[in-house]
Design brief:
Order of helices and strands: HHEEEEEEEEEEEE
Strand content: over 45%
Radius of gyration: 26 Å
Structural class: mainly beta
Oligomer: single chain
């Protein structure tokens, strides 16, 4: 009898461990969930916050900073773009430039929103809207421009298997492959007065449709999940590539070689929630 009880406890422990492992794919996933990973991913998600950083680095012989860093920050309502670039001064001797300082330019915040609906049948719809307001003080068109850009994306989604080289597990990431993209931009101009221009509204709509299994793959994206709870989804971005370019020129007995290196990286986190 005691042996039977012990066997039952052992089997239960193994099954519990299996369930825990099956449920927990992302690093911060819940250890135990009665809802499948697909069931937790399906639904309408609203972007609540994000920080995305891109670094474009071009190395030169002076060992000074030659990289451009762009940071996009979303706080739930507004999106801000901050770009940091090095400034140089032209000089008369080689290498004919001199590093001075880093300069950061931060854009005026825009109103931003993104909603993603992931369906059980393997399709998705994503709508992101950005509103930018600019005030001009020119002789012919003094007034306010309000530009609203809306991108509506439709497509298919599917989980991907784990990869040992990438150190990812099964269903840790999923692919979003678009089948249709509709981009619409509307600009409304309101002059200070009739003397300073004429009010108008301009609209431009571009529709792109993809057909075939491989269509849209160039615009597909892989989303890696750091956390997937019933009402919260955290997606992480972490990628980098480096390059080396070698060029040579030979003329007679003279040969010159030039080598340039660089890298580009993107890192960031997006937090989405369900109502």
């Amino acid at each position: 009898m005691k042996r039977n009880v012990l066997n039952i406890i052992t089997i239960a422990a193994v099954l519990f461990s299996f369930v825990m492992t099956s449920c927990k794919k992302g690093e911060n996933d819940p250890g135990l969930s009665l809802i499948s990973r697909k069931g937790r991913l399906v639904g309408e998600w609203t972007l609540k916050s994000s920080v995305m950083t891109a670094v474009d680095d071009h190395e030169r012989s002076d060992d000074k900073n030659h990289s451009t860093t762009t940071v996009n920050t979303f706080d739930g309502t507004s999106m801000t773009y901050a770009t940091t670039t090095p400034k140089f001064k032209t000089i008369s001797t080689s290498p004919y430039y001199e590093f001075r300082k880093d300069t950061t330019i931060t854009s005026k915040p825009t109103t931003y929103s993104k909603k993603t609906t992931i369906a059980k049948d393997g399709t998705y719809t994503e709508v992101n809207t950005e509103v930018e307001t600019i005030t001009e003080s020119n002789y012919n068109d003094s007034g306010t421009y309000v530009s609203t850009s809306t991108n509506t994306v439709k497509g298919v989604w599917f989980f991907i298997e784990g990869n040992k080289a990438l150190e990812t597990g099964d269903k840790e990431g999923f692919v979003m492959q678009m089948t249709e993209l509709v981009s619409k931009k509307e600009t409304v101009f309101t002059p200070v007065s009739a003397t300073w221009g004429t009010a108008y509204t301009s609209t431009n709509t571009n529709t792109r449709t993809y057909t075939g299994k491989n269509s849209g793959m160039s615009d597909a994206s892989v989303q890696y999940i750091a956390q997937l709870k019933s009402k919260e989804l955290i997606i992480v971005t972490d990628g980098k590539y480096t390059y080396t370019n070698v060029s040579s020129y030979a003329s007679g007995s003279s040969t010159s070689t030039n080598t340039s290196t660089g890298s580009y990286s993107e890192t960031g986190t997006q937090t989405l929630t369900q109502e």
